[in-house]
Amino acid sequence: MSKTTIILKRLGTLLLWGLALTGFVVLLVAAIQDKDAGKCKGIQVKFEGKDDNFFIEPKDIKSLIAKDKNLNPVGKKIGDINIAQLEALVDQDPWVKNAEIYFDNKQQLNIKVTQREPVARIFTFSGNSFYLDAAGEHIPVSGRYAARVPVFTGFPTDAEKLQKADSLLSTQIVDMGNYIGNDPFWMAQVEQLMITPDRKFEFIPKLGDQVIVFGDGTDIEKKFVKLLAFYKEGLNKVGWNNYTRINIAFENEVVCTRKDGVVPLQPVIKADSIKLPAVDEPPIADVEDADSGAVAHPVATSPKPEAVKPAAKPEHPAKGKEKAKTQHEKVVKKAKAAPAPAKQQPKAVYKPGNKSVNTSKKQKTP
Asked: Using one digit for the tens of pLDDT, what is the confidence trace for 202-252?
């Protein structure tokens, strides 16, 4: 085969590919022009999220677009519709995180909506309420549906633009809400958390009536793991109703406050080990007086003008000892009968061991 024939075949092949590409471009342009010349026949709204409990419905998105006649795409030419402007309009809804708009082959306007997912519900001092999403953005409460998320009460401000301390508190709330919401056990156990005036957290679990002192919103996972270990290794053995407060804010320990009337564990002291004065043993004061050679004399008092009393006679030494002995016995009886001083509310400290919760069996309980 000559070189001329080979060159002609190659040119023919290139020409065919060029014609095919040109035809494809022409058809594509024609299709686009036909699509742009067509009119929007309707609106389809689709939601994306983890569950089916949505705070907004398709009719809310449709009404948001249709309320402005200039922006309503239905019946307009597709080429005259500003999709970017419609997306910005849908994004204005506080429950919408992101919106994507496009036309399909049936000339339907499709709106794919990703809604915000709340992680915590906040109640302020003034009684106002709102949600926080994973980004810390405020979400208004919906009258259609209430999200099942941890509730935090006592938030110090209603302002959307937070100061530094309140912004840090908001971040800690989001972290705690995320952790509790992703753990089925703590989601069932923790329903409401209280924010203290010093911006720390406390809560009362559903199982038990103790106040759990959580402290600030740091080391969240470590504190909940420590509390779970105390539940399994401590409360399961000593009982769930023995404490009023359980403090897990400290490092590597759980400090518990017992209920009123529960006597703390005390060492047993035998009665024989208590040194008491013998019955025939004279008081210490009498012995010291006898060694020093001092003699007690009666004190003379000035006589009253109405009657003059004779001076008291000195007592016999034996009678003085018996009198001192009697007085000592009265003092001992009064000391026994006197009520014990009020004791402070006892506390117990639990320090989890290094072993895991499921394998540790030698851990002592408070």
From this structure: 999 988 888 999 999 999 999 999 999 998 888 888 877 888 999 999 888
201: helix, strand or coil: strand
Strand 192-195 relative to strand 96-103: parallel, antiparallel, unpaired? unpaired
The rounded radius of gyration (Å) of the Cα atoms in the chain is: 43
Q: Check pLDDT > 70 for residue 58.
A: yes
Domains annotated for the chain, with CATH where assigned, are 39-115 (3.10.20.310), 118-258 (3.40.50)
What pLDDT score does 30 carry?
A: 57
Angle at 356 between CA 354 and CA 360, to 5 degrees: 85
**N-terminal to C-terminal alpha carbon distance within the chain:** 100
User: Please, how many CA atoms are within 13 Å of residue 157, restricted to the half-sphere of its CB?
Assistant: 14
- DSSP per residue, 13-70: HHHHHHHHHHHHHHHHHHHHHHHHHSB--EEEEEEESSSS--SS-HHHHHHHHHTSTT
The sign of the CA dihedral 263, 268, 273, 279 is positive
